[in-house]
Amino acid sequence: MTSRFWTVVGVAAALLAPALDAAAAAKGKAKDAPTAGGATAAAPADKATSLKAKGDFPAAAGNFDDAAVAYRDALLHRAAFTEAREALAMLLARTGRYDEALLEVEEGLKRDPAWKKGLLDEARIEQMAERWPEATMHYRLY
Q1: CB 91: neighbour CB atoms within 10 A?
Q2: C-alpha radius of gyration, the chain, whole number
Q3: Which residues of 51-78 are buried (b: 16+ CB within 10 A; e: fewer)?
Q4: pLDDT tens sequence across 48-87
Q5: Which of 56, 49, 122 is nearest to 89 (CA)?
Q6: Which of 40, 57, 83, 98 has the fewest Cβ atoms within 10 angstroms?
Q7: Dihedrals φ, ψ of 40, to 5°?
Q8: Whose CA is closest to 53, among 104, 26, 95, 14?
C-alpha cells in the first residue's frame, strides 16, 4: 500500500510539474497587469491551467469522474486549451467512452487546426477501441 501511495504521488508530481511551472510564469506576468480598481488579477488562462492541474490529481488516483469535471471546467475558461482537452479525451478513452473521447479530440482540432498531436490522440483512441482501420488511417495522417 505504501509503495502504491508513493507511485501515485510521483505520477501526480510529474504530471503537475509543467502545469505548475506555466502557472507560476503566467502569475508573474499577471502581477504587472493592474485591473480598473488598481489591483491585479490572474488571466483566465491561469484559471484554466490551475483547473487542469486540479484534474490531474484525481486522474492519477483513479477518480475519473472528479478529473473529468475539472478538465471540463478548464475548457469552459479556455475552450482552445489543448492540454486539458487531450487529458479529458484520454480519460474518457480509458473508461471505455471512445466515441466521446473522439468528439473531444475533433473539437480540439476544430478550435486549433495546428494541434497535430490531436491526430495522434485520435489514432491512440481508435487503437484502444480496437478499431484497427481507423487507427491506421489516423497514424498515417499524423
Answers
A1: 21
A2: 17
A3: bbbbbbbbbbeeebeebbbbbebbbebb
A4: 999 999 999 999 999 999 999 999 999 999 999 999 999 9
A5: 122
A6: 40
A7: -100, 150
A8: 14
